[in-house]
Design goal:
17% strand, two-stranded antiparallel sheet, alpha/beta, 37% helix, 8 helices, Spore Coat Polysaccharide Biosynthesis Protein SpsA, Chain A, five-stranded mixed β-sheet
Length: 185
């Protein structure tokens, strides 16, 4: 993208703030993992990444370390189509699970950046990071994972975009077009 995706805006609102508001509507006030200087002014708790440069797996480990909760909702900030209804369902499903992580499965595979992680998963994830693992699903190899099949999440996603993230400028433009409010004259 050439710049920090978290700060890209849709209708004048940075993606990270849009995501934080969706999480807040669904469960509770979120904690943002990332550089304080970039995100502190947004009004949410911000935790510096324990594993800078380790990608999302490091962010998950940091979130689990910083949390006092048994179950933790983890979402990437570049998934602009998430809804509070889906996230509430995901959290409820996790709270009833004995697994270390509850992860939806899409037609593209596992969606570990819109998942719930049990606090007890932290040590396995940290061990994987210490071994040099950076791929999220590989870092979860030592965990029991409960998968959520598409048939369960499809009712929350009539447009087929629930887990679509923004990796290219074209993805960003598509999200802006779909999610922007009516243009003012």
């Amino acid at each position: 993208m050439g710049r920090n995706k978290a700060l890209l805006e849709i209708d004048g609102v940075p993606l990270i703030l849009r995501t934080a508001h969706v999480v807040e509507q669904a469960v509770a006030k979120p904690t943002i993992v990332g550089p304080r200087e970039a995100f502190a002014a947004l009004g949410f708790e911000c935790v510096e990444d324990d594993w800078p440069g380790a990608g999302p797996l490091g962010g998950i480990a940091t979130a689990l370390r910083a949390s006092g909760m048994e179950w933790n909702l983890v979402v990437a900030c570049d998934m602009p189509y998430l809804t509070p209804e889906w996230l509430r369902h995901l959290v409820a499903r996790a709270e009833a699970s004995a697994a270390g992580a509850v992860i939806p499965q899409s037609e593209f595979g596992a969606e570990p950046l819109c998942a719930s992680y049990n606090k007890r998963a932290e040590s396995a994830i940290r061990s994987a990071l210490k071994r040099g693992v950076r791929k999220v699903m590989e870092g979860l190899d030592d965990l029991r994972i409960e998968k959520i099949a598409p048939v369960e999440w499809k009712p929350f996603d009539s447009g087929g975009r629930l887990f679509k993230n923004m990796n290219t400028p074209a993805d960003y433009e598509e999200a802006r077009m779909r999610l922007s409010g009516p243009k003012k004259r």
